[in-house]
Amino acid sequence: MKLKFSKLGTAWEIFQTFFALLASVTYVIQTYRPMSEMIAFDTVALVVFTADYLLNLYCCENRWQFVISVNGVMDALTIFPTILDRVGNGHSKALPFIRFVRVMRMLRLVRVVRVAGAHTVSAVRKQIYTIILLTACLIFVAAGLFHAVESNEDAQPDLRFGDALYFVVVTIATVGYGDIVPVTSAGRAVALGVIIVSFTVIPMEVSRLTQLIALQSHFRTTYHPLIGKPHVLVVGHVAEPRCLLDFFREFYHPDRAMTSMSSFEGSSNHQNEVDPSVVELPCVIVGPKEPSEEIINLLDHPVLQNRVTYIKGSVMSEEDMCRVGADAARACFVLASKSAPNTKQTDAETVMRLMAIRNYNPDLPVYTQIVSPVFIDYISGVDADHLLCLDQIKISLLAKSCLCPGLVTLISNLFRSSALVNRETLTNWEQEYAEGMALEVYATTLPTVFHGLNFTQTCQLLYNISCGEVILLAVYEQPTSSASKTTNPKKPTRGSKTMPQLRRYSWTLKPEQSTQMLSNPGSSMIMRPGQLVYVMSESKKFTMTSSIANDLKIWLAKGNVLPARPGKPDAKSKRPSLLSKKRGTPSNGQHSITSDERADRQRQDEILIDEPKYPVTGEAIQNHIIVVSDLEQTSTLQFAHMLRHERHVPGSNEYHPIIFLSWSSPKNAAAACRDLSEFSDIFVMLATGDSKRELMRANILGASRCVVLADKANIQEIDGESVDSQTIFHYLAVLSIQAEHGMDTTSGLMPMVELNMPRTMKILDSTLRKRTAISFQHRQELNSLAMGTMIVPTEVVAPTVFPVKSQQERAPDDISDIKRRLGKANVVKNIYLRGADNIISLDQQVKLSKRISSKRTLIKRELEFTRRHYFDVASSHQGSFD
């Protein structure tokens, strides 16, 4: 067994195979030259075949089983022809049996089939090789047998081996021309045996080949990249169709046409042109499983049909990486699962994929997604080019949205491609919102005219020459070594890249990083040649360097003058940085481990509260932020740190106490208290009942904001769809509290929700749409109330308990009183501020009218039923009287 799978055994098998082919060729030659003798070759063949038989007999585990096996019998039979030739030398004419035994040498061709089956190829190719060699062996052996029994002097002495071969092929093909026919009974038996074997063995092998082809994946193919047209790899979590749809919608958006690598190099007046070979970049999706039906339908879309290819494989296999052309790819995107319940396992798999890609092609730019910030350091150690931490960005945006409502929507719209729809079908506010959605953030370089101006002058000049179409946001500060490079464009290498390696988690980078993004640095930043800037515009064509230069020429032609260039800024002046600034960290006293463990334990006990009151003073916690969370460590700390910068001090408008409301276990709550012990105004409340009651216990009516974080451990599958069930219940509980207390969608209590499953948005959209419609109706009624005219409902509304004056008596007095007390200009505004009581009364009227309407319908049905029953009874009595 060891000899069979060793290199020596493989070499011996190959030698035996070629020697068997040589022995078969010598037999065919001897059929044309019956009197020729090859004593030396026969002797060598005898030695080689005997040595092979004895070697296999010695190495096998069960010798008796090898002797009676098919392979052992055929190997033994191939030795006999040479022995019988030596015994019957010169008597071949008298011993026809010897001539028949010589055909057994061709049985060595079966070894070719065995060698082909042992080769490490795919099952389909192995079966194809087996069928071809088996058919060839069958034809040659049958031709040898037919020639041996039919070439006698009594039958067909002029029959050659080629004629016998022709006869066998015609017989297997069931053509039967009749030019060559068997004369002897043995020849007819050979022909019959050929037909039987060819009709049984070959169809069985073909059927097995069909089964193997059916089992083989149609997506396990090889991608052949075209010369001059590089492709992009998409690996990782590729089983979610919605994620792939969002990715390709952004990737193939017209504004996402990538510029060439040399566009960021060279002289400052070098024009940034779009590389035509990059606009239509083909993508190769690499997944370990078969694509689902939804993904197949996505790939069949006309937009993606000739661009995206799905190949079944794994990045952990070098063979699969070779099949997808990873050595010739332009970039690789590693997607992460946004809905995975175990984020650590998901990020660990991402790290392993990144390491495998780096091991196969170290020069391949990799764009990586991770879920949790825990693995940032691990991926940084593997040399990730671009890194995007999903949870870090989501939690940061949710935290900042508590201070600036709508920030999540603004940032999402800026970094998501969209196009303006037909404005004729939109209302005024929808048109304004659609125009805002069309704005995006682009990276570009400015013409030479801007060099030497400070950031403030550049921002104003860029806004003026573009008529407000381009707004400067930030500057990418590159290292001084890269800024002083030669202006001659060169082919970029990995060691000398000038393309900025932007990392979305750059606010957690170490201070040693020399690159940083400066947002609104003011007059301290002087624009330099080749400096990369980030602008906001509706279309990419407005941000091209050529477009900016043309707009500048038109602006100067109108008589405008460029601003004066300021002097050199002080090198010691500190430039403000948005993303490179280190997060506000607590003082050393908060981080230091005190020797008094009792005080530390007391502080942790103070964080865990049962009611919204300060543990020390006993005062009620007001104007706070309620965060419904599962107390996951990274999410909790990230949210807390984003709202505890240096400017977030008590008394400021951006300061709010925080209460984490959780249905988690006491063990997780204790761990969260230890993590939050450095903060004196962040508390944890454990909930045990339903969402509505626990939210009221957390004083949600006195809260400033309410944030519902995703509970990744409670994702349920309903009718084959995974939804955030627990998150939906918390969201509906907040809406129910709003409805009961007369709050609309414009109130600050409107919850901000984090979702794991995108399909959950369908459920929340319908609820929010209905809620928005009701809120809009209430605002209309408030406007009419402020103007002194009330909208009369279509249904009859029962009188309320409040005394109502007539329209003639009430309108002049009420309007004059409102104008006198609130002021004419602020009537609507102040009524909105005091509109909760009015909304409650309106809700009571609407609910009462609905109850009255339903009661009237019920009374009508009862009267109709009584009337029918009366007529039925009357008719029955009348019939009995008759």
Number of strands: 17
CATH topology call of the largest domain: Helix Hairpins
Largest sheet, in brief, is:
6 strands, parallel
* Lateral strand order in the biggest sheet: 3-2-1-4-5-6
Biased composition (Basic and acidic residues): 594-606
Region (Disordered): 482-523, 563-606
Membrane topology: Multi-pass membrane protein
Subcellular location: Membrane
Characterization of the model:
With 882 residues, the protein is an alpha/beta fold. Helices cover 48% and strands 9% of the residues. The radius of gyration is 43 Å and the shape is elongated. It starts with a helix and ends with a helix. Keywords: Ion channel, Ion transport, Membrane, Potassium, Potassium channel, Potassium transport, Transmembrane, Transmembrane helix, Transport. It is a multi-pass membrane protein. One of its GO terms (molecular function) is potassium channel activity. This is BK channel.
